[in-house]
Description:
Protein name: MFS transporter
CATH class of the largest domain: Mainly Alpha
Organism: Alkalicoccus halolimnae
Transmembrane segments: 7-32, 44-65, 77-96, 102-122, 134-156, 162-184, 204-228, 248-270, 282-300, 306-328, 349-366, 372-390
Domain Major facilitator superfamily (MFS) profile: 6-394
Radius of gyration: 21 Å
Helix content: over 70%
Structural class: mainly alpha
Shape: globular
Keywords: Cell membrane, Membrane, Transmembrane, Transmembrane helix, Transport
Mean pLDDT: 83
CATH topology of the largest domain: Growth Hormone, Chain: A
Largest sheet: none
Amino acid sequence: MLAKKNLIVMWVANFFVAASATMVLPFLSVYIETFGQFSNEYVQRWSGFIFGITFLVAFAAAPLWGRFGDSFGRKKILLLTGYGIALSIFLMSFVSSVGELFFLRMFMGIVTGFIPTSIALISAQTDRHEAGKVLGTLQMGTVSGGLFGPVLGGLLADSFGFTYTFFITAAVITLATTFVAFGIEEIRHEKNEIVQQKRSMIEVLRIVINDRMLLMVMILSLVVQTANFSIQPQLALFVGELMTSENIAFLAGLTFSVTGLGNLIATRAWGIQGDKFGHDKVVLICLLFSAVTFLPQAFVTSIWQLIILRFLFGIALGGIIPCVTAYIRQKVPLSMQGEVLGYNQSFRFLGNVTGPAAGGLIAGSFGIAAVFYASSLLLFLMALFFYGTYKQSKKRKEGQYASVG
């Protein structure tokens, strides 16, 4: 009963925190233009820098938050990072230069440990046999927030202006974090576990690197996020090539959001299948499915074909995050689980940076369709390497059992 209550509280909190991370997307370039008279190239360049710096800094910070949560309690880290995010967004309403906004987005990256810590907290109190279902349910909150964040941000900016949008967003995150403060009761497992020697960060890294399957899972998180984000900066231009309409901005937003909708619908169901048949098997299926649905997007001739394929691609992606997290839950001791989940989140954050950068370079050199070719090939190769590592790991285990017998 307690675990179920904690899941509900964290679902709500993750929704609002994830929404806050994407609320700024619809008006980031317009907000930069209010600081002075700048060229379009300057605004576009700094929009990319300001958006990307949050994830680049979060790449380095996520494992540290995971480690602190393992040592001092994850609820404390949730409160610290939640209020930190609220403070950074609140201060954004007072900035008057690109440099100040860049600094606050950097600070936001430092405190972006809320969602991975929430995953670690719920994972630690979830039975291994239903980890996929529970973590898939939690992922629905994060995906929903990311899906509705740009819509809410755009509506707030149009209705109240930039300053009040930051005020309102900060207030909502403060309330969500306070909800966690009073609604979450952390279940600590020290008394129920064999006391284990505290490992250093180098030792934890060595464990991850020496476990081929665990390392492959981390690389998979980077590759999938890179492929997913590779086309996003070019999506509006691609939609513009498919049609001539006054509603291009709306349809580009719909094409962007429908992937999240497919993800939202499928993530819990994929998690349940992972619990039944093995999370590694579901991850492999989802990888192949994502490649198969991503490649045809290069050949579409209408916006609705693209929307359908983007929706199917979202369904494929929906099984990867909860099953990867559940796999880590099963393979990693609780004493270092938060830190390992932090490393996995770091690889995902890095993909948020490498994806748009790689997509921009490929599109600029070979055209937008080439982005679909390259990312599909990347997903196919990842599925091939993942399958090879999985088979090697399985043979090694069978050999160990045979030697013991």
